[in-house]
Specification:
The protein is built from eleven helices and two strands. By secondary structure, the protein is an all-alpha fold. The chain has a single domain, classed as ABC transporter involved in vitamin B12 uptake, BtuC. It is globular and about 60 Å long.
């Protein structure tokens, strides 16, 4: 099969834009694992609720999802803080199996609650301020996807700057490396946990709002993204926030190029095959430390 160059370029650009959105979703998942040392299986449901917040802001308040970005970020940040206060704080010293089942149970609860409140219907925002597509040298780029990628790059850049360049960010890194030593140095680990959950919630809230401009919204949508984000986090190295943006681009590119050159029906299978390969060959990820 011979493909024209413009088709390949179109596919590569699409993979980059998708990958940036994956990065924004995955950065919170990686941050929680790195700082709190727990896997949040409900992270996809946080995204789903963020998308619903954007949808209802549009339906009820007539506020476009792009203008509702701060609202969605604040709402899911509060959800993240509440999750830590009411659930995670009580299981931090529990066996790993208890931690896993607790966040998995939260995932089931949030998904079931969404089905009860909003039914399983697919919803879509038709008239967002970002719609249509741009043509650049014969290559068409969807404006909603481009805006979502822009939000992702800016947010990931700000999170990276915050973690690397500020005192609070260095305190987060200290807790991630050794919480007992950080506590002895006067760092309040509990506050760092709350901060990590707030940042993770805000980032996935922004992702939910930006994705709602072109994706269907339904109770199971978070599960689709969560599994892919596990691949992104595994590729960058669990807890390694710095490499998430690059890893998201790699995963997005593998997904769309696999669909183009092999089969659209196998694009996710190729991504998960990449995940298995990473776990087997380099469990610490491409950018993770040994």
């Amino acid at each position: 099969m011979v493909l024209e160059l413009d088709i390949i370029l179109q596919t590569v650009i699409r993979g980059l834009l998708i990958g940036f959105s994956y990065s924004l979703i995955a950065v919170g998942l990686s941050l929680i694992f790195g700082v709190v040392d727990i896997v949040n299986f409900a992270h996809g449901e946080f995204l789903m609720i963020g998308m619903y917040v954007a949808f209802w802001c549009y339906q009820v308040l007539r506020v476009d999802p792009i203008y509702a970005l701060p609202i969605c970020a604040a709402a899911i940040a509060l959800l993240g803080v509440g999750t830590h206060k009411l659930l995670v704080r009580r299981i931090l010293r529990a066996p790993p199996s208890i931690q896993m089942f607790s966040t998995f149970g939260l995932m089931v609860f949030l998904r079931s609650m969404a089905q009860f409140l909003w039914t399983g219907d697919f919803r879509f925002i038709k008239d967002s301020v970002v719609k249509g597509r741009l043509e650049i040298f014969g290559i068409f780029v969807g404006l909603p996807q481009l805006v979502a990628a822009f939000v992702a790059v800016v947010t990931c850049g700000l999170i990276y700057w915050f973690i690397e360049k500020t005192d609070l960010g260095r305190a987060l890194q200290a807790v991630s490396e050794d919480r007992e030593a950080a506590s002895l140095m006067g760092i309040n680990c509990e506050r760092m946990y709350v901060l990590a959950w707030a940042i993770a919630g805000a980032s996935v809230g922004l992702a939910g709002a930006s994705l709602s401009t072109y994706q269907y919204i339904f109770p199971e949508v978070g599960g689709v993204y969560l599994t892919i984000c596990f691949v992104v986090v595994a590729l960058s190295g669990f807890g390694r926030v710095a490499g998430v943006l690059l890893s998201g681009v790699i995963v997005g590119s593998v997904e769309v190029l696999g669909g183009l050159f092999i089969s659209p029906a196998l694009k996710y299978a190729i991504v998960f095959l990449l995940f298995i390969g990473i776990i087997v060959i380099r469990p610490r990820g491409l950018l993770g430390k040994g």
